[in-house]
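notes to self, project folder thing:

trying the whole complex as one job this time. last attempt i did each chain seperately and stitching them together was a nightmare. two parts in total, labels are on each line so i dont mix them up again. if this works i'll redo the older ones the same way
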Amino acid sequence: MSDSLTVLVTGASGFVGTEVTARLTAAGHTVLPLTHRTTDLVRNNGRKVTAGRGTITPVTGDITRPGLGLDDEARRLVARADRIVHCAAVTDFGLPDERYETINVAGTRHVLDLALAHRTPLVHVSTAYVCGERDGVAREDELDVGQHPGNGYEKSKLTAETMVRKAAADGLPVAVVRPSIVTGASRTGHARDRKTIYPVLRVLTRGLVRTVPGHYDALLDLVPVDRVADLVTGAATRFDEAEGHTLHAVGHVLTLRDFSDVLAEYPSFQVPRFVPPTAFSADALTDRERPYYRRVIALYETYFRRRVHFDDTQAAAFVRRPPATGARPYLRRLLDDCLATGYLGPAPTTDRPDGSTHR
Amino acid sequence: MILTEDQLQNLLDKSLAELPRGTEWAVTLEGSIAEGFGNPSSDIDFLLVARSEDDLPTMPSLLFVDGRRVEIRTRSVRQLADQFRAVEDGAKRPGRLSEDLLNRCQRFLHSHPLRGHALVEEVKALLPVERFREITADWWAHRARQSLRHALALLCLGETDEAVDWTRSGLVQTVKSWAARVGETYLEPKWLSLQLDRAARADVRDRYWLLEATAPAPGDTGAAHEYLTAALAFAAQLGLTGVPQQPERITVERVNGVTTWQTGDRVHVVRARREVFALGDDAGTVWRSLVLGRPLPQALAASAATGVTEPGALLATFLRYGLIRLAWKGGGTITPSLPLAAPPGPVTPPPSTARPLLSVRGAAVGGPRAVDLMPLPADRFAAAAMGLVWANVVVENAVEDLTGALQRGQWRVAELTTRRAVHAALRGLFSAYGVNPLPADSDLVRRLDLLPAATGRPIGEGAGTLLRRTVDAPERGDALLADLRSFIGLVRGAVGADSFPLSFESADTWRATLELGYDWLRIGAHLDAELPIEEARDLLASNGAQPHRTPAP
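result (full assembly):
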């Protein structure tokens, strides 16, 4: 096809990256999926990504190295790319600062260098939570407003997006997509990658931590992975319209009260008691609870305090699709999927404090 | 027919003579006599059909002609056409097709024309009788499946006798489905014996009556199992599909509006956001073992693994009360109904008579296997529980304040603080009995008449005395404090130590009380219940710190 694009996708084996790769090839574009190791790309539904109407030419590389660690052949391939979609990032919480610096900050630096070298249009996948710890409305055109990042991850993503903005100011064509908390598919609730909210749900529903600091009216925005992938893909393929914009890829807004009420619908789940952060003391937790609190809940508790709403005016105008509706039914689909796959359910006799699965 | 054409025409003439003249009616005889059943005491059912678009009344006119009861109904052609169309439209969802609608169509299609034959036949042709047989057969088959699946579930849960009864219902429904397919579409099961005789399949008839007459001994699980197996085999022989004897195809599913809230060790289950069930320890353990979406045998095994005996009986209770539902994989919710009866829906047991009803740790229950319905609406239940927690906090706080006031010789302050403590203790007492909203403070002592006299009278006397007490010297102050403590002890004794857990006794008991407070706030928020007062939230928010006191180290 005449308008077929060649797109380099970093983080192509990740939760969002795979779905973006699948959509691009299905639409007839040539995808250069960049992965650390040559490996099959597996979609969220468990199926391998196969070339659709377009082709897939895997590229092995490492974003933590200058030039993405590409060999000569790969470098020649990448130089011909019409777009770069930068999905690669570490999204786990509680890692040493160097990890965020190496992957999220330096990785973005290396991607920017590559894009600048050929003035290749870049779609940068950031996070809505660059807004940091604050209440109220976070707008798409805001970036650094003196906010306090909630954790090392947010800080690194803020730094990376700031670098992208600077490159844009220097003339690089850029579009930024900011997903909120990326969770399971809209229709099935299924997620193959259970990070972010998932370990929290695991620890809480098993009653491993029963008291959690948080406000019942705190807001969590859960966005289905398909909505994020659609928006990122759209930004790459309709770049002329997306260029210069920041698009909030947001989904279902849920309060902690919603979480509490929906969790209560499951007889086997423990429902945590959320207590005002000022009244909470980790020392008052039982000896059994404390390690789970420190290793899982403490990493995420900043999200239980924020009453932030993400304005998505620009994204809504761009996607031409109605906003997500039915937040509680969506949460039920996520939980049902976790139960069906055994991720959630009665606690095994020995549990790991990090909430990881036994495999 | 048991009446001749002449007899019928004669009855019709006499009946019509009693009705206003004017409309040109076609007339047809419906019901058991037209079907070829009936006996001398059977009603005569005439349907008058008008070629019009009007809505004619559904209510019949009742006449007594020649010693027979005659019912006369009227329908317009448009109404009859609408009925047929509704049956066709509903045929794909037999679970939603109403028995009444099906019955009206059946009666008309099998009626015997007496006047205006052409019009009656013209309307009958709107729904070919072969199609109607299919629809009715599917309708009965759907009901048979529900009953037999329900029987399978009950057998799995060990509810043997109930399973036998539902098997028997499934048998009737199965044979009615078979009979409908061979042309016997009359809905009422009361003429089933005549229908089976007419169907001219002695083998089916005899097998059915043999099974119908089989009565497994009460409580005999093996016999009940054999009975169900035989019924399912017979059903399969008659062409009923969708009921393999595989209980693993039954799953335990969520019911909308049912939520679980635990305070302390007590599990409370809210139904439809309106009613609260308090579960005894064993019932709570089995409830907590339920993982929704799992096959019933797995759910049963998980509940058995908790160590609670006969968990199936508890699961059956949850099912009966509509706290869970069962579904058939690929077949939706299992909704059993007896032949020609509506699905029974969730059972509501008599409300709990436990007194007092509440402690800060949860509702009182009748025993470890209890699934007790609280005698007050869910939101007021939660409000009463929060009122109790709050009263607890205020009592302790007032006693502390009284101690401080006495130390400084602030006699008036001491008197007021005493009254505050007495009122709070009474509010706690009322809350423990489920009284909500509470009477005004000034009315609390008088309204002790709401409580059992043995409790209310001594507490009322003690409260009355304390509320009138004055202080003007240290020794009277000390006596007041001692009497107040003794009064609080009296209230504690009446409602149980769990209702007043002596929050300030240690940091641990205080924290435990606060945690229970948060637990009740959680359920209260879910039910949009009234908080005792906004200060309650503040106090919980500040972890019990009192603005005018130095926090305890």
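what i see at first glance: Chain B touches chain A at residues 254, 258-262, 269, 287-293, 302, 324, 511, 514-515, 518-519, 522, 525-526, 540-543 (CB under 8 Å).
need to look closer tmrw
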